[in-house]
């Protein structure tokens, strides 16, 4: 009975010191960020962003420092949280934003919820899904799944979710984050098919905060990638190549991790599962490849074109 909502928070936060508890559902989750520097003595310099929503709209929530190792893996997309003794501050202007599955949802972009271990010490409770009541008015998680046949018509940097059967996965590679930097991004290439096109999805998968999944992507697994970005090969190339790359809010799931995920109710996911039931596993295994060097985008096939 003493709950507040996100819309009310945005209107009253400057005049309040203590805020009533919030009941929200997680709609998006960023990768875990490490911001430690040698000269700064911090025990656990971690941070993670979430987009949370209630019946009034959606707002960013930031998990700080030692709360990250304690809570990050428990806070999944779809999880319902009861938050008390949190802080509110103006939004950080340079953070990335996921594309919401529900384009009609109101976004409160001026402020964000901060969960800290002190000043004040936040109280976090996870509400089991079976105890969530319809009258709370919490939005469902919505997705933007596309099929391979739809991909070529999408614009550069369009955000989407995909599901496919993995037919190729390359070795793990790395690229410098910046020139002359000591920091590297880890990534690997994968192909996945969904039966709607002769062409596979070409996926550039950067290591997210899910090492257990990233390392176990194998041919013949059902792969779900959310919040992917469409990359059109913008060079003047008549046989242009379209691929997808992960964003800061991407989540990756493989066979064994799908149970209980909100996307299992999506119509395009159900259609894909129906298609896989009509396929011969032995035939598909013959077409699969693992490992090796994968140069992409591919160079032209002759020096003249080059």
From TrEMBL:
It comes from the Eukaryota. InterPro entries: NA-bd_OB-fold, RADX. One of its GO terms (molecular function) is single-stranded DNA binding. This is RADX protein. It comes from Leptocoma aspasia.
